[in-house]
Amino acid sequence: MVTTNSLNEFELIAALLRDVHNAHGEVFNTTDLKHTLNKCRARYRAEGLSFLTKVLPRLGKAFDKALAGSQPLSATDLGLEPKEGGKLPKLFWEFISRVLQPDGRLLQCPCSSSVKVVRQLCYLFYKYKLPYSDEQEHAVVASFEKTEDDLNTTDRGLEEIEDRVLAGYNPDTRSTDKVDRKVLVAREARRLLYKLFASFDPTDIVPRHGPGTVATKQRLWGKFHWSNVSSQITDVYPFDAYFCASVGHIGDRWQTFQSVSETSIPAKVILVPKDSRGPRLISCEPVDYQWIQQGLGTAIVKHVERHFLTRGCVRFTDQTPNRTVALLGSRDGRYSTLDLNEASDRVSLRLVRLLFPYMVLPYMEACRTSSTVLPDGRVFPLRKFAPMGSCLCFPTLSLVVWALLTAGTQDTYTRERIYVYGDDVIVPTAYAENAMIILESFGLKINRDKSCTSGLFRESCGMDAFQGDDVTPVRLRTVWSSLRSPSVYTSWIAYANSFYDRRLYTTYDYIVGHLVRIYGPIPGQELDLPAPSLRETPPGQNIRRRWDKNLQKFKYHCYGVRSPVIRKWMDGWLMLLRYFTEAGRPSVNPLTGQYHEKPSLPFEDGSAFCASEYTDRHSSMLERRWR
Hints:
The protein has 627 residues and is an alpha+beta fold. It has helices at residues 9-23, 30-47, 50-67, 93-96, 112-123, 134-166, 178-197, 231-234, 239-242, 247-252, 254-258, 287-306, 320-332, 349-355, 361-366, 393-407, 412-415, 429-441, 486-501, 505-519, 572-583; strands at 267-275, 278-284, 335-341, 371-373, 379-381, 419-421, 424-428, 445-446, 457-460, 463-466, 469-470, 545-548, 553-562, 565-567, 587-588, 595-596, 613-615, 621-626. The protein folds into three domains: 9-129, no CATH class; 130-213 and 269-472, no CATH class; 523-626, no CATH class. A four-stranded mixed sheet has the order 2-1-4-5, covered by helices on one side. Strands 6-7-3-8 form a four-stranded antiparallel sheet. 37% of the residues are buried.
């Protein structure tokens, strides 16, 4: 029975443990449940939320390493009390012992359902977006600066091979010199990217503004008023062709355009909540750079996903293939998943210049910011090609990884089975060690703790798989609030539904009870309403309804989430420019990932595009009405 509006994190874990007891009573009996609850309660009272966000995830990570066969699990190394006669922890021992031997190594026939239980308990609060401290902020910024220093070493290594690559150096294939092998890989990667972009026209783009914040601080409608356009951009993307609606626009606003500054403005670093470990660093691009980046990035993505060389291997819009291959790899070990650490920050400008062909490189560099402003106000020069936040970051990273890995093998079978989705990489297991060596030799950093190259555990693009079974846990991200909030309402309904799908009904009821106390009756999915809905209507609640004689159906009075529409009249030419660049932009089918050249409809009511209306995505609000 829920008696307060405040959701207690320990009570949520307790509800989850009761569900585990109900489903696995033969393994986790009532006495085991009582002892485990007492242990967790004592640790929670002593350590607070950090027990759930730090201690349990550490156990989960060590457990994953043991599943992958890379390192045995040891309770003492984690600061946990070990079970007598072995290295396994007493906490969750009933399930861990069905997966691992007493010495912490994988059993010959481990239990997949026990793996799912342990990972769900350990990772429930791992992604919880808690407020971060000043120390965490300083650590993230310091790591960003250190990565830039590391690129100095990377660039010096690339200098050793650059001249020979560009000069067509061709060493004896029997040579064992590491530099010679890097030369061969770099030359082949250059050839692949040249072939990929041979038919690509970087001037055939439709620039547009993104939805996010920009370094120059313009809001929505203000982004179309050009006060600064860097000459670095206009040297390859002329102002009259890419920043104006038409020749008439230029003629009518000639005096205004003469006052536009041509200086290059640096990007700006901001920190946004990521998870319980701390914030994520994002670079806000200047508005003129973002305008062209969006157009060029979209054109590259479309071209790569359609080209015969990369179609099926490099993806940007659909994670399903990577998830499926990870599941297959966990079944027979045929595929390995590689995880890149600080991936976007370790692709240096020199590496991009080495690999990318002349027909696209100048255009990529034209919309690249060369410096960023750190939170303390310092202007920091960048050696990386593009930080996270740039629209070219993700495509460039994916293509660098694909080109290097494909160039590293001449085996057709292996080449056709390299799957890249940003920093999520899948390769045949026989090629995994060579793949990691190749990527690291060009400055990228492999997170070997999260890379799965042995055992039968794989993770890629949100899919955690073991022995062919999906063992992905529900990870809570949005922090609970007793105040009505659209993000809490939609997120926690989704969490509850995920628990319901996993037959964790006690946890489902616990969350739903708190939601109903704060938000009132919530519809079930059986009503088929265009609003956030639970898997089933909670018993005892009555949602107001009335008969709509025009639609010949019942309508229900319930909450939905709406982003307010801002109507802002701009200069007519600017509205025309917005119409040309946004009304007919391609949309992506979320099921297939395919592009469709049709006007997008930005409003939930399906209304036609209006150049004077903006959807304010950052101020969604709850709205109770008849649906």
